[in-house]
Amino acid sequence: MPVFTGTVSTCKVDVLIAGFPCVSLSPLTTTPGSIEDSDCSSGLGWTSTFQYIERHRPRMVLLENVQTLFASRKADGGQSPYEIMRKKLVSLGYSVNAALFNTADFGPPQSRNRAWVIAGLKSYDTEMAILDAARFRCSSFPLMEIINQDLVSKNPKKQAVKKHKFNKDAKWHSGYKERCKELGGKAGRLRKSAHVDKIIAELRPVVCDVSERELAILATAVCEMKMKFVHGEFLALRLPDMKVDEVSSEFGLYMYDDGGMKGLAAALVWESHENLRHSRMVSLVQNLLSIPTLHKVQSSDPLAFTIDRIIKQNVDAKKLPVSSFEWSEILLRLGDHGSSYSEAIKLYNNNPQENGDKSASGTLMIDSKKTHSIKHWMTKCGSLAREVVLESMQDSPFQMGPFGESLAGMGQLFLQSSADGLQGSADALAPLAHEDCIAIQWDLQLTEASQGMLFRRIKIAFDRATAIVDDVRDRKRYRMKPDEVVALRNLCALWGQIRAFCKTRLPDFDSFEQKLHSGNSMDDQFAEILQTCPSKFAISMLPVSQHEAACQLKRQEETVCLEAEQQQSELRAAKWRYFVAALERDQRQLSLVASAPEKLDMLRHRKTMGWRLEQAKVGEKIMMAYSEKFIRCRHIQQMEHMHEILHEYRAFAETAGVKTTDICTITFVDLNTPLANSKEKMNELMKAVAAVNDVAPTKSIGCIELADIPKKSSKRGLADEERDLQESLWSLKQQCDARWILPFEVPQAAEAHSSRRRFSSGRLVVNKDAEETNVFLTSAELALCGRPLADQKIFIPLSKDLLLPESLQPNEDLRTAERQRPSQEAVTAQKGTDRYLALLRSLLTTSSDSLQQQAVLVVNLTGYVEELGSAVLQHKLDKNNFGGFNCEKLYYLSVSWLGRETFGHCRLQRDILQSWMANKLDYGTSFSEEAPTLTTAEIKSIPGGEATISGLDSLKWEVCERNGNRMVIKQDEHRYWSSQTGEIGESYAMLKQKHDKLLESMPEVGSATTEASENTANSEAQDDPNVSNATTMESLDALKAVEEIAYQVQSEVSGVQLLLTKSKQVWLVSLDKDKVLAKHCQLGGFGSGQYAKAAECGDGVPYKLEDKDKTPVQVDETSLRESAATGSVATMTLYKLLVLTEREKSVTAHKVSYFNVSRKDDSSVEAGCDAFNVEPTHEMKFKILQQEGSEKVNCKSFFARCVPAVSTSAHIRTVFRFRFERVGLSLKVQKPYVITRSSLSLQKGKPLKIAEGN
């Protein structure tokens, strides 16, 4: 259903999947026929399929048949059937492609070559679809684990097996029974019925709602599949052909043959019996069993033929008998053949097969309730409603769709029905004075248009409720309840009466009607009308029009008041009240407009962060994929496992199109790293170098960088260690006579006295047997010249740029007094990537052409900080070409077994990710540099945001108007109220003064889009220029007369000194002139110390962020911006610092020392308080190491002697300084300092107390 009538259907077909008969095309057939001959089964199947395609024009067509489809045949005039099909499909505007696949390559337990034809409209890439399908081949499937070995004949072609005797008690399908007997000729017959009975016993508790007859057929199919299949042979169940007669073709009542059982049997063999208990398999079994088999009827009467098909459908699928709507569709079409409704029902109910068959819920006869439902559909259902029902049956059967038999029996849903219990009331809602209105007939008869709207609304509500319900059988629980349907019915009938009236009077009528038809929150507009049942309807009764009606009423009231001279004083009072309320509303709206840019900036930043987070996820996937293919880092347990890793990578490169014989290898070893700090480790590394060289002696070379510092005390130091290196290599049959040297440059004068060497030296190692033929040793620039010839300076990295293991941890390497210094190996091993760029360039620059066609695998055995990996990555991204060698063919493999440090690997991954973000790395998906912008809808969602788009004039102002970029009281209002005397005039003057102050405190709002300030709701306040109310002494001598000064030092502000008395009071004094210290001005610090848990140390500075993300902090600007001046420090709130790292460093997950930081939910943006959650992981203190009186006191350590006074002061506060770690992307806390809370005014020579003592 719906019945095919030979015309184009109203349903839209996206995909058509068809497999027409192969009898006339098969090479085994005795009656070959042309694919264009409708008299043969294959020709009839293809012709019918093509007619369907021609009428419905699906977007994609998938056809399947035997492989003879591609062969030239005499029956087709020397052409292949595929060529004939392709020409016809191309004539309809399809692009066509085909392929030959074996079903066994895709998992099913069958070995069949099948031709697949895919056709799509011009916009569909059929060639790509064929290529995609080929990717899903699977190499093997666990068939023999599923098939019971006891049921497989050892030699079925030679061993004779007794014929199977069918169970006489079972109700067998004759056609299927005879075919099962015929199948026993080639591969052996079915064994005793005990096998079938055994499978029936296994299937009975698994498959639900299946008759004994169907269960016996299933068991026979499973047994047949297990018996017949022998590994390497073809498997096919050939069932009787089906030919549709003219009567069934006319009505479109196409039935399926027992071919459904073939698919079911294959599924049962493929799935184990345990898997059948899953709901997915139960649904598959039930769907296959619900397919009715071909039931021939020797009758030419269309009515009898149709009733017989319906009875067969009801008996075979008792869960889904023919519904009342389907009955009506059939009977309406039977009316053309002279058949009446009563004859059809009588013929159906009197059928002996229908009366004798019972379902779980009783007989399938048509009772009086279903009879009424059928009459409703036939006589009282309009075309619009019928179209909606037909549309709903495209996704699910009628019984499981939005309507069902329960709604079909409700007479109120059909034409000419009336509402019950509704009566007009004169005391209900009433139109406004002189307002147009119409009378309402509250019987609410249902018209065809109203019925169509009602059925559409029921379907929309059902589709929304079942959008996430996968099982079709569960959807009917989400149908509308009868009382809801009745309420919706009354609304649709009411709208049918008033629609024409509203169309000429309701503003934006089309949008209103569209929302009403889609059920989009417009039902509330009629709730009060349906509840009170007024006798007349007016537009003002709709809430959406009440504002306009209220404005009209207000104008009428003002007119009446002006005409009434005797009520002048009351009129003036009313106008005054309105003016005050309107001014308050305008001021509230103005406040929203003033705060809108700030909220928009928060929303814009939130959206940008969401976009960056998505970009970070994409970048991480690309980084992992790129590093897995080109830049690999592996850790192994022992050196012996390196052969496996090397072989794995070479094999991977071969799958990428690089032959193993075309791969050259360069092995790097740096004896400066901590991974080579002993003779034993050095010997292991040399064994690894020899092992790599021995794989391909003529194409492999080792590059050894000698140590800068001796690792043991000896007479000759480095010379003895170099001799040990030579002896180790000679014992491994390696030649290492070739030397190289690489000079360095010192970048800054501050590093001029560094103890690090100004050059690196090393040796080139090759296999002794390949010394004369090695491609690198005989032709590479580094081997021939002993140094790189390129005129390029190689700089040693600064000490501050060294990468240490603790760089990844936000709670380590906090730069305190007890910071552990890096080892000599950790320093000498880091000479920058410039040296490896030069070494690789010199090794790949050869005088021979043999290296140009090769790929080079760079193996690093001492990947401490992965500087070599960064150099390989840079060469690949720059696409350098050295002597004809293309650096895009470089591969990198870092193998480590002497240590497990991961910070070098992380640094390499970070370099790949940054290269992608800089659009230097193009690997599938490019990094998008365009941050998302706010849409108009998002801007308007913020109160006052519309003014940033269209200006202040776009908003509705009552008593204010725009004057430049400010909203002032309208001139007419000002003239009128300023001329008033008495109490109203005085009140207006006060309101005017208050409004002017409000304008002064607000920023100007432009008429165009206003960009939000960088300072957000949590940014620090502006400096307060007012003088603090701190205690001041007349002079320094006056202070000394009452307090004994313990310490007097110069603060960090020029000309301002810090004083600490014996009673722990802190004073400030300016000795040269009057000064004003700005807010957050830094005065000094607490000296040296370290961070420790609060429970483990007594005194100290508590590490707290008291105001969460509003807490002022300091940041070392040089760690955030390379252009910042050395030592520059900025003070800002933690919120602004976190946002700064998000914008400047693309940070998506914040890591702060000893704190967990995460962004609050999006709802905070609407309130104008975008913020972060800041929670401590541990209670920490900055433990001061300096003891009082043990050293000279200065401003850097001054406040260590008065920590309690600072914590309780109202004028100064503790601030913690942070440093951004570029590798770990973390904010690491440094020393605490002391800053001013607000502005302080100092007079020359007069001390100012800023902290109380004991």
TrEMBL record:
This is DNA (cytosine-5-)-methyltransferase. Residues 1003-1029 are annotated as: Disordered. Residues 1007-1029 have a biased composition (Polar residues). It comes from the Eukaryota. SUPFAM superfamilies: S-adenosyl-L-methionine-dependent methyltransferases. Keywords: Methyltransferase, S-adenosyl-L-methionine, Transferase.
